[in-house]
Amino acid sequence: MGLEVSTPWQQVLDKIRTWARVNSPWAIHFNSGSCNGCDIEILATLTPRYDVERFGIKLQGSPRHADVLICTGPVSLQAKDRLLRIYWQMPEPKFVIAVGSCGLSGGVFHGCYNIVHGIDEVLPVDVFVPGCPPRPEGIIYGVAVLLEALKSGKRPERTMTVELPAGFEMPQAEVRQ
Amino acid sequence: MNLTIHPLIVLLFFPGGLFLLASGLVFQWADRKLVARFQNRVGPRFLQPLADVLKLLAKEEIIPEGAHRGLFVALPIIALAAALTAALYVPMFGVQPFFSFQGDLIVTIYLLSALTISLGLAGANSVDRFSLVGATRTLTQLFSYEAPFLLAVIGPALAAQSWQISKINAYAGETTWFIVAQPIGFLVALVGLMGKLELPPFDAPEAETEIVAGALTEYSGRGFALFRLSKDIELVIGLTLVAAFYLGGIANPLDFVLKTGGLLLVMALLQTAFARLRIDQTVGLWWRVGALMGLVQILAILAGIYIRQWWL
Ligand code: SF4
């Protein structure tokens, strides 16, 4: 993903790479202290009725295999370090989708003493899916929005600095356009 | 069908190399699509496996702490090389195998086992507990299905009086299909193949609900892509072997497509119909039922051969 994309060969390679990335988003699902409502909706999304394998979406168990972190909940202080750990275990390029009102602002837990109030306080979130809980259609739409953004080469800017848990070293991040 | 092609083309494009990789992807797609249709889903698109592999190749590869670096990088390559080499001795796409010698059946089976062993080593080469449990299960499963599968493959070899895959293939094409003469062997071979490929119901080594992703938990990017590719090629080789031995040989490309496709259909049905077995149930099934059935089959064949010699 060099900045100096100039030769036609590199452009073709980049096109292929984007195509593959857009067509095969593998997801990992993490519950950072949600009430479980959103998680049940995510599981409903993965059932044969909605059949997300049509779009190439596959739920992976290991963060090492995943591209998209689908995250729910208001990030309780307990879950925060685990969430970061999962995030740093994923290989680049990686994307985050926050599902549910809790992930946006804390939702019904807003004002609680033991939460961080939203996933974007901890991680750079690419897509927010509102709802309490959002319907499976909403979650699929969220993924579609992310893929659409990837296709056009855009990507929600990452301006956040991410706080690392002790003992973790920041991998050398690549510069992306 | 007999073709004469330059060995380099054989190795790089057809029927080795690129063509083999492509067919592995096609078979993976067919398998996933069939399972999806059996589950009343639409299933993945045709280019899905290709997109998966390209995406994985373009991703970052993380080498975890505590793993031996050289081994971590080399094992996926060894696995893929073993799978690609094994394919050279098998009548792929109905073309005569290009490298053939007396005893290549044994070599092929060992190469396929080398793939599984590198999978197990990849899991053991890690401090991650899920990888370790996955590696243990992979190797346990290897020890349980290998003997029955070998017994099932030896059946046609004994009948054909040869250890050469191409000769057995030719012999199978001349006589009645071995699935009629040795139905038990066919059953054991088919189910053994499913165990070899770690397909459900024998997917305890990579049970994602218990041990994340088994031996490959720590693999990302390139390594994972290569392991997936070698699994796909193993699927093609396994289907070709069983079809060549039990379904009347593979003489031309049409034969290849029809027979392996039919086998894949049955395997997809079995995958959908059964739930995952625990690893101890897998071992029990193989040693108590599979191996015994294989032995009975072998004894029956030997008796048949002696009786025939005695009569003639
Ligand atoms: S958004 Fe609603 S359903 Fe989802 S975790 Fe929060 S409270 Fe539960």
Automatic annotation (TrEMBL), chain B:
Q: Which InterPro entries match?
A: ComplexI_Subunit1, NADH_UbQ_OxRdtase_su1/FPO
**Protein origin, superkingdom:** Bacteria
This chain's protein is named NADH-quinone oxidoreductase subunit H
* Localization of this protein: Membrane
Q: Where are the transmembrane segments?
A: 6-27, 71-93, 105-124, 175-193, 232-250, 256-274, 286-307
Q: How does it sit in the membrane?
A: Multi-pass membrane protein
Q: Where are the annotated coiled coils located?
A: none
One GO cellular component term, please give it.
Answer: plasma membrane
Entry's PANTHER family? FORMATE HYDROGENLYASE SUBUNIT 4, FORMATE HYDROGENLYASE SUBUNIT 4-RELATED
Cross-referenced Pfam families: NADHdh
Q: Source organism lineage?
A: Bacteria, Bacillati, Chloroflexota, Anaerolineae, Anaerolineales
Q: Which UniProt keywords apply?
A: Membrane, Transmembrane, Transmembrane helix
